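Q: How would the structure tokens look for this protein?
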Amino acid sequence: MLNLAGTAFPQSKSSIQSEDELRHHLAIIRDAIHRYKTAADRGMFQIPVGSQGYPPDLDTLVKGVVLDNGTKLTFIHNIPLDPITKGEWGVRSTTYGNSQGDHNVSDVYCKSEQVASDGTKYKDW
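A: Here is the predicted structure in token form.
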């Protein structure tokens, strides 16, 4: 019997690489958000009112913050582009859902509606 499941939607090497890159970029950005939140929760710098200790935007992770002792702390060298959409990330906030005008960034996600090799949508990763 011929198994068509593996050939119905063949995954190209470049799409698998893009998925690996997406996972990697999400992990890098999420780690930077986590390190910012941890430093904020430890009181290492002043946080914006209502931010709950999360960065106000992704640029803050790159620009950094000034610690109480006067030194600057950065959390990521640059924000990589989403390898699937080749554009900006969607952001989630603890205060207002998924809109871009939020007071904090608690997570990032791919904006693509495309389905990944595991059957899930990239936007749900």
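The CA atoms of residues 67 and 95 lie 25 Å apart.

Confidence is low (pLDDT under 50) at residues 1-9.

Upvote if useful.
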